[in-house]
Amino acid sequence: QVQLVESGGGLVQAGGSLRLSCAASGSIFSPNAMGWYRQAPGKERELVATITSVGNTNYADSVKGRFTISRDNAKNTVFLQMNSLKPDDTAVYYCNYKSLAFVGPPYWGQGTQVTVSS
Fold it and tell me: Per-10-residue mean pLDDT for the chain, 118 residues long?
């Protein structure tokens, strides 16, 4: 089992910045991938960014150049630095962990609300 605890969401004006954090605990094995997904009201959950335990990253086109994902492997923590935020970025942001060493389901955090006002 893996537990994920997110923090850092909130309310910000358009053009502002927020930094999300997600700490993983439990049965953490490398290699693995951690990332962020988001779900806006009435929409499906979508990928924002992922990063593997060796540092390979992947971003949604809508956030490239504005968001940066990083991680601290020693602390099993992943970060999402969000700059130049837009109202369209408003959503619940979910942390995700998936082992790349074993076949199994991904794990999800409880979600943190990000609201960008215009």
Answer: 95 98 94 97 97 97 98 96 98 97 91 97
